[in-house]
């Protein structure tokens, strides 16, 4: 599914950027173009949500391993 129609960036593209270490929407934009700002900007909330979900999961997994 497309996250950013203006840049034709899919969920997979955005997730790859996040998995590679992007922690902000700006870093995702630099990585795959999604939310770059040349279009409508409607995707930025979805990108931020994907980032939050990813890092919440990573932190929970790290806590489980250290427990």
Topology:
Blueprint: E1 2-4, E2 9-10, H1 11-19, H2 25-32, H3 44-66
Antiparallel strand pairs: 1-2
Helix pairs in contact: 1-2, 1-3
Order of helices and strands: EEHHH
Fraction of helical residues: 55-70%
What integer is the average pLDDT?
Answer: 91
Output the radius of gyration: 13 Å
The helix count comes to 3
Poorly predicted residue ranges:
none
In total, how many beta strands?
2
Name the strands of the widest sheet in spatial order: 1-2
What structural category arises from helix and sheet content?
mainly alpha
Largest β sheet strand count, sense and barrel closure = 2 strands, antiparallel
- How does the overall form come out from the CA principal axes? elongated
Question: How would you characterize the overall build of this protein?
Answer:
InterPro entries: BFD-like_2Fe2S-bd_dom (IPR007419), BFD-like_2Fe2S-bd_dom_sf (IPR041854). This is (2Fe-2S)-binding protein. Pfam families: Fer2_BFD. The structure is a single chain. The chain has a two-stranded antiparallel sheet with strand order 1-2. It has 67 residues and is mainly alpha-helical. Helix 1 crosses helix 2 (25-32) and helix 1 (11-19) packs across helix 3 (44-66). The mean pLDDT is 91. Strand 1 and strand 2 (9-10) form a beta hairpin. The N and C termini lie far apart (36 Å). It has three helices and two strands. The longest helix has 23 residues, at 44-66. The radius of gyration is 13 Å and the shape is elongated.
